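Input sequence (209 aa), recorded before submission:
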Amino acid sequence: MTSKVFGYCRVSAKDQNLDRQIEAMRAHGIDERDIYAEKQSGKDTDRPQYQALRATLRAGDTLVIHSLDRLGRNYDDIKNEWAYITKEIGAHIKVLDMPILDTTNTQTDLIGRVIVDVVLDLLGFVAETERAKIKQRQAEGIAIAKEKGKFKKSKIQAPQGFEQKFKEAAEGKTTHTAVMRALNLNKTTYYRIAKELGLKTDKHETPKK
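Predicted structure, token format:
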């Protein structure tokens, strides 16, 4: 059976654009019908197009991705997927923005396979180290702020139009209850946002006639 080349493109949010990745696949000579694209979070592998691709890949095929993080959100997941595709299925992987991660030239070369494994381990180590540093800096910053009495929890994001609607309720033009319902906020959150915005929280509940 003739081996095939497939492309996988992914963005995490619905408002993000897949065009750049898809164009890179076309430029690589991949047929449109062999490009799997979706707008899904990389938090796990339970993605419809990715699962369809997994089921399609056969030994000797090649999977092309634009960047390594298209396979998953963290390097444990990425390494697991890499091992599944290259060892369990026996397919190749080519990462366009990191040419060293290309098993089409190294699958039968022991040194090449070792290099790929080392690079993956190194990338995972760097990512984990950076995450640990970020958490440490955050913890240190909070500790210092607490010592100085300046630590405050982050503010709740006010829904669009909150201030105007709150003022209308405060003036008796509507009720706070109606505004809470319209903005889908519970009472505690509603008044906490108002307090953080410096709004007077006199609680009119009867609209003016």
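Checked by second reader. The helical segments are 19-27, 48-56, 75-89, 110-147, 162-170, 176-183, 187-196.
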